[in-house]
Amino acid sequence: MKQFIRDNSLSLFFVVLFLLALVGQSVAGYLDNNEELVLHGQSEIGFGDFVTSSAFLVDVAENWQSEFLQFSLFILATVWLIQRGSPESKKPGHEGPGSDEDQLVGEHAREDSPRWARVGGWRRQLFSNSLLIVMSAIFLLSWFAQSVAGTVVANEELAEHGSPPLSWLEYVASAEFWNRTLQNWQSEFLAVAAMVLFSIYLRQRGSSESKPVGAAHHVSSVESE
Amino acid sequence: MSDDESAPGTGMRAMFWMLMTIIGGGLLVMIVLPLLERSS
User: Fold this and answer.
1) Facing B38 at nearest CB: one of A61, A146, A148
2) I need a surface site. Which of A35, A86, A127, A140 has the fewest CB within 10 A?
């Protein structure tokens, strides 16, 4: 058990933080939602009703989609784009998907390579892109969830004001949907740009996200190894 | 065999699938519940 925790402390730390933050969000959102309801002269709802409501789910979904978009783009962009000196980037000159030899696939696979890296055809193609495929799929599904839950929330508000409801397509083209979407995207893109650029000149001793403290600014961590 | 050469245990694989299940379940809930609410 001790060995398991030590081998997986990074994943465990973030999974636990995720669950705690989600519970925190649901409690704070529940209290906030009831305050709003009381202000509008409506009766409070139960916790179960709140966490299954579109109002809660749209907030969760819109944050999920932006995070998974961020990582999907980062995974894809780092195949082709380079930042000299950043440990987040490959070395200049190594742009592209790499040779089969570099990637240890097909005849270059090792004994302990995953089976789908050793075989050819669609299985190798799928496995070669599986990280991007899964992260992008989660992004697209979360974004779709945001749009569906957002439609419900927007229509509840419209109904309160006696206005006719929006269709899903009308909501996806609405300013509200894009406001919710882009306010999340801008922060993700800023954070990635900051991480890539700051890591050229700044260090965190001991972090896998940083170059060694004494590495030159122009050297990426790959080059310094 | 050194630590980083040892094969990942079944626990790591279980954790991988646990997180995939949490995400998959979360996505399902976030899509299905609003659709149900919408149609009601």
Assistant:
1) A148
2) A35
